[in-house]
What does this fold into?
Amino acid sequence: MERKIRTRRECPEISWGDWRILRTDEPGVLVMRYEGDDHTLVTLHNFTAKPRAVMLDRGAVAANTGTGELVDLLAKNDSRADENGRYFVQLQPYDYRWLRAEGIDRNVPR
It folds into this structure.
């Protein structure tokens, strides 16, 4: 829990950045994109008792998608866009992911 709180504090875009909800076809899954200080963070939260597979469009995730990598800040579940520019993220029941677009930086150690 301490690590999750520390990670949250190290993501200023959640507090100070702009945010928007990203559309998904998976019922019970909330996907939000936060942007601020040249950082983009995508959070996915599964509020259901069933596993969910979420597809995200690379263009909707981040405006500047150089490498196409989403780095999981809380675990080692990184994601790369496929050749069609889509990310597929698996979520277990009541699971969540916090993914930093364009990789990790000095402010958020893994």
The chain has one domain: 2-101. Strands lie at 18-22, 29-36, 39-46, 52-57, 69-72, 79-80, 86-91, 96-101.
